[in-house]
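The material for today's practical consists of a large collection of protein records. There is nothing in a record beyond a sequence line and a structure line. Backbone structure tokens are a discrete shorthand for how the chain folds in space. Nothing more is needed to start thinking about how sequence determines fold. As an example, a complete record with its sequence and its structure tokens follows.
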Amino acid sequence: ANRKADAIQLREQLQMTGQVIFLFVGRLVKRKNVDLIIKAMQQLDHPRISIVIAGSGEEENALKELAAGHPRIIFTGNIAPQDLPLYYAMADVFVLPAEREPWGLVINEAMACGLAIIAHKHCGAAVDLVEKDNGVKLESFSVEELSQAMKRSADDASLLQAMQRGLR
């Protein structure tokens, strides 16, 4: 129960109270396609969507430039493993548009923390774990498809809650 309070506090610190928060956790490298998340966000320009990107890597500067000045895209840098559950608790949807991914433990962790999942259909654990009842499997690497999935999650609170609970 304490984590819930901490998560609410973290939302406040990040100025994301009342937002639908999409979280990416991982190395910032090309094959993770984090740029798609940023482009989808820019295309949507949705007042209730925020993005938190946790991690570092060779793409970090390019991604920060791409996101330049967007008030609701936040880069946290690397997060210590013991702090990750707090970020999962704070977020609503976990996003992993990676191209190829070994079994991504992050998907398991995010689901265990009650997040809805948006991941590419060939992406590690998404193949086995992500179904319509707990998230969205992306068919492509298109900004359009990702932004639609994000918009649906943000606009339909009951759908989002159902995906978070993993219930149809």
The helical segments are 2-13, 34-44, 60-66, 84-90, 105-112, 126-129, 143-155, 157-165.
